[in-house]
Automatic annotation (TrEMBL):
Domain of life: Bacteria
Record domain Phosphoribosyltransferase: where: 10-151
Coiled coil: none
Protein name (record): Phosphoribosyltransferase
PANTHER family: HYPOXANTHINE PHOSPHORIBOSYLTRANSFERASE, HYPOXANTHINE-GUANINE PHOSPHORIBOSYLTRANSFERASE
Gene Ontology terms, MF aspect: glycosyltransferase activity
Keywords from the named record: Glycosyltransferase, Transferase
InterPro entries the UniProt entry points to: PRTase-like (IPR029057), PRTase_dom (IPR000836)
Length: 167
């Protein structure tokens, strides 16, 4: 991995959603459900839902990253997970922010495989080492990506002095 970073602004994120939606529409793929991988895929799934006119959205929680370029050995699906019967016979679009190793997409695809009619994957970024080639990717990069929603530290209360107990 290079030391340079790919920086995605909120404005470019909006462009990526519209571009991906157009690509999916041009491909004549009409999903019955968009399944977002939390947390990174939530914004993409919501944006694609609006752009493609899909109101049926769901979320699956997967933990994999523990820091910058640090991850668990394998991704882990966290509860609650969508009931497989809810996906039965559907065309599902699986949305995530990045296909880095591809292991998260692979886990969610396998989760869906036995019940859905068809699943396709969409990401904002695809990395060359991904073991899954997403069906739709906005950009390809080998850099670490600074997403606008995760580059800053969590917000804390501003009215509490350091060392004071939260009210």
């Amino acid at each position: 991995m290079t030391s340079e970073r790919e920086v995605l602004s909120y404005e470019r994120f909006g462009e990526s959603v519209r571009d991906l939606a157009q690509t999916i529409a041009d491909d004549d793929y009409v999903p019955d459900l968009i399944l977002s991988i939390a947390r990174g895929g939530l914004g993409l799934g919501m944006g694609l839902g609006y752009a493609l006119g899909v109101k049926n959205l769901s979320v699956v929680n997967v933990e994999f990253y523990t820091g910058v370029d640090e991850r668990l050995e394998m991704p882990v699906m966290l509860p609650p997970t969508p009931a497989a019967v809810d996906l039965s016979g559907m065309r599902v679009l699986i949305a995530d922010d990045v296909a880095d190793t591809g292991k998260t997409l692979e886990l969610v695809r396998k989760f869906c495989a036995d019940t859905v009619a068809e699943s396709r994957t969409v990401v904002i970024y695809e990395k060359p080492r991904s073991i899954v080639a997403p069906d739709y990717a906005w950009r390809r990069t080998d850099r670490w990506i600074d997403f606008p929603w995760s580059v800053l530290p969590p917000v804390t209360r501003s009215d509490v002095a350091p060392g004071d107990a939260a009210r």
